[in-house]
Amino acid sequence: MMPTSLPPAVAVMAKVPGVSPVKSRLHSVLTAARATELYRCFLLDRLDALAELGGVSRVVAFTPVEAAGRMQELAPAGFRLIPQRGADLGERLSTLLRELLEDGHAGAIAIDSDSPTLPMAYVVEAARVLAEERCDVVLGPCEDGGYYLIGLRSPQPDLFVGVPWSTDAVFSITLGKASRRGLSVHVLPRWFDVDTETDLGRLHTEMTATGQGPTRTYAFVRDVYGASAGTPPEDRRGIDPVRPRIEII
């Protein structure tokens, strides 16, 4: 086990908005430009939420590397920026988590940027069980079969090899790999991410029911659907995107 002197690191996996396509499965519903605006809301709300957590080191793992300046403009103060490196998602995750652990963090965690209503209490729980050495791996399963969070106490490159990314088998395959290696796994509650029109509708319905949600995301989704919960998003495609106010903290 590597010597540790730093708190657990939590890295948000981010695509820099406006540099490469994002949320492609929502382009036919929102248009590419509005899908980018939606993702920008997701990302900035996630960073703001993470900025409120104590006891962790905050990281943005971004891509592409040439957009470092733009990512720096968006990230709140106190975040370390690390470019993602690797040929696929598995290699990028493995490299990131290994580097954070080698830096001396008592656990390294990667979280997604497209599950906007994810309770930060789940992230706190992941950091705590790693810091207390209660498990080797933490996984936060998504309802679509992927995962929104993975955390490690030591590098585990085999967990990221041969995984069919962006399929409904990602979580189960990763769990199986950990089990075969004799690793103890702490599984967090399931949550959902937003990739499709159905997901977006669910997000709208749940935020409308509670009357609350991440600030930028809540405003954007209300604009997409209009005042009526029954207004389909394609009827609003011609409206200029909401321009959420960005606060650099």
Structure in a nutshell:
The chain is α/β, with parallel strands linked by helices and 249 residues long. Helix content is 37%, strand content 14%. The chain folds into 2 domains: 179 residues, Alpha-Beta Complex (Spore Coat Polysaccharide Biosynthesis Protein SpsA, Chain A), CATH 3.90.550.10; 40 residues, no CATH class.
Task: Describe it.
It contains eight helices and seven strands. With 249 residues, it is an alpha/beta fold. The protein folds into two domains: 9-187, Spore Coat Polysaccharide Biosynthesis Protein SpsA, Chain A, CATH 3.90.550.10; 197-236, no CATH class. Helix 3 (68-74) links the parallel strand 2 and strand 3. The radius of gyration is 18 Å and the shape is globular. The two termini are 36 Å apart. 41% of the residues are buried. The model is unreliable at 228-249 (pLDDT under 50).
Using the coordinates above, name the CATH class of the largest domain. Alpha Beta
CATH topology call of the largest domain: Spore Coat Polysaccharide Biosynthesis Protein SpsA, Chain A
Main sheet: strand order: 3-2-1-4-6-5-7
Overall radius of gyration: 18 Å
Helical residue percent? 25-40%
Give the overall silhouette: globular
Low-confidence stretches: 228-249
Structural class: alpha/beta
Please outline the major beta sheet.
7 strands, mixed
Number of strands: 7
How many structural domains in the coordinates?
2
Annotated CATH architecture of the largest domain: Alpha-Beta Complex
Number of helices: 8
CA(first)-CA(last) distance: 36 Å
**Strand residue percentage:** 5-15%
